[in-house]
Specification:
Layout: H1 18-36, E1 45-48, H2 55-65, E2 68-72, H3 76-84, E3 90-92, H4 95-108, E4 112-116, H5 120-130, E5 136-138, H6 147-155, E6 159-160, E7 174-179, H7 184-197, H8 203-215, E8 223-227, H9 230-245, E9 253-257, E10 260-264
Parallel strand pairs: 1-2, 1-5, 2-4, 3-4, 5-6
Antiparallel strand pairs: 7-8, 7-9, 9-10
Helix pairs in contact: 1-2, 2-8, 5-6, 7-9
């Protein structure tokens, strides 16, 4: 049966892939488990040096994980890209403005992404002077002039993001589902099925399924990806196909498991 749904393999030149966001999210949750004893970054501050090296995917993943994020960026095109696509919630020009927003959300354990349009040297020095302390930082830009401030933040407790952050998910364990334009309702149906199948005591995957649709940029919201065991993926596919046979799916959808596509709802 042919279903008019965009391919999983369509290239994207302006946005990170859902797969990359998912990989960053899983690594953030794993990184939070050791120092914070939690399955998410809720209530913690993440500092990101700039949007290069997948900083945009990391920002999206951080919001899904519950983190409050501060990214430093001065390139006009990068700032416009972030604001236009909803990757950041606020773009400000002073650290004081950024902190007013961040402190509130950290206290409430709510995710927020703030972009500060300032050079890193001045911001880091001011953060050290004012006692602003990130819980975790990603500093990909080598600059010996900034190393003193970075070392100071780390000595006070900031943890670097682990190298495993960049590891891609295992495609053999990844289940994907995708709909065409206007397919938000059917994706919500499949999200609900996934939430029922995944273990309740697995906050990393449960939170991803529940929160990713809200924090993924609009251009990425018609695709879902999550790791499942063979037993979980079989149960998921059976439930989707059952709804398809009952004509109960809101729109056509493609489910991909282990590289094989299954059409439903057409």
């Amino acid at each position: 049966m042919n279903v008019a749904v965009p391919s999983f393999d369509s290239p994207s030149f302006t946005m990170p892939t859902v797969s990359r966001v998912r990989a960053h999210y899983a690594s953030l949750c794993a990184a939070a488990a050791t120092p914070f004893g939690a399955g998410s970054m809720a209530g913690h501050l993440l500092l990101i040096d700039e949007l290069a090296d997948e900083g945009d995917a990391l920002l999206i993943a951080a919001s899904i994980s519950g983190a409050a994020s501060l990214v430093l960026e001065t390139r006009t095109d990068a700032i416009r890209y972030c604001v236009r696509n909803g990757i950041v919630d606020f773009a400000v020009t002073t650290l004081s403005e950024a902190l007013r927003i961040l402190k509130n959300e950290v206290r409430k354990r709510q995710p927020i992404a703030v972009l500060l349009e300032q050079e890193a040297a001045g911001v880091l020095a001011e953060m050290v002077e004012r006692g602003v302390q990130p819980d975790m930082l990603r500093w990909a830009t080598p600059d010996s002039a900034l190393q003193g401030s970075i070392n100071n933040l780390m000595e006070r407790g900031a943890r670097p993001l682990p190298p495993s952050l960049e590891a891609a998910p295992d495609p053999a364990r990844e289940v994907c589902w995708r709909a065409g334009e206007g397919g938000s309702a059917v994706l919500r149906q499949l999200d609900s099925i996934a939430g029922q199948i995944l273990p309740r005591d697995d906050p990393e995957r449960q939170n991803w399924v529940a929160r990713a649709p809200r924090y993924l940029p609009r251009a990425m919201r018609l695709e879902r990806r999550v790791a499942m065991t063979d037993q979980e993926s079989a149960a998921f596919l059976a439930a989707v196909e059952d709804l398809g046979e009952q004509k109960a799916l809101a729109a056509p959808v493609i489910v991909r498991i282990g590289g094989q596509d299954y059409n439903a709802g057409g």
